[in-house]
Amino acid sequence: MLIALIREVARPDLILLGTLGLLLLPGIITPEEAFAGFSNPAMLTVGALFVVAAGIQNTGALAFADKFLFVRKARLPFVLLRLMLTTAS
Fold first, then answer.
1. Same-domain status, 45 and 88
2. Are residues 23 and 1 in the same domain?
3. How many CB atoms lie within 10 A of CB 34?
4. 10: domain range?
5. b/e for 40-51, b at 16 or more Cβ within 10 A?
6. Together in a domain, 53 and 29
7. How far is CA 39 from CA 31, 32, 42, in A?
8. N or C, which end of the chain is more exposed by having fewer CB within 10 Å?
9. Are residues 24 and 55 in the same domain?
10. Are residues 58 and 78 in the same domain?
11. What is the C-alpha to C-alpha distance for residues 64 and 42, in angstroms, rounded to an integer?
């Protein structure tokens, strides 16, 4: 699994689900153990954040923020100030 992830043989989600299936088939782990992580609230939160991030990217809000924060002719201290102010608020 680790080598497949490093070599980017396929998408990471497919590699990890395939590995989960391979551990499940011979009985190395039980079905309860295999699916226990999917009920974890932290995992559900991370999954929800992926959905929110995709929505932000598809609406173009990310491009607007990029143009606002990283003005091409601005010097580094001004860029850092804008980035810190938006992050802190």
1. yes
2. yes
3. 14
4. 1-39
5. eeeeeeeeeeee
6. no
7. 13, 11, 9
8. C
9. no
10. yes
11. 30
What are the tokens at 54? 């995709």
Q: Which two tokens stand for residue 9?
A: 């043989």
Q: For the chain, list the strands marked E by DSSP.
A: none
Give, for all 89 residues of the chain, the pLDDT tens digit. 899 999 999 999 899 999 999 999 999 999 999 888 888 889 889 989 999 999 988 998 888 877 877 777 778 888 888 888 888 87
Nearest in space to 13 (alpha carbons), one of 3, 1, 25, 23? 1
- CA quadruple 57, 81, 46, 7: dihedral sign: positive
Nearest C-alpha neighbor of 1 from the set 10, 38, 25: 10
Instruction: Give the pTM.
Output: 0.51
Pair 25, 65 in one domain = no
pLDDT at 27: 94
Residue 59 and residue 34 in one domain: no
Q: Give the amino acid at 50.
A: F
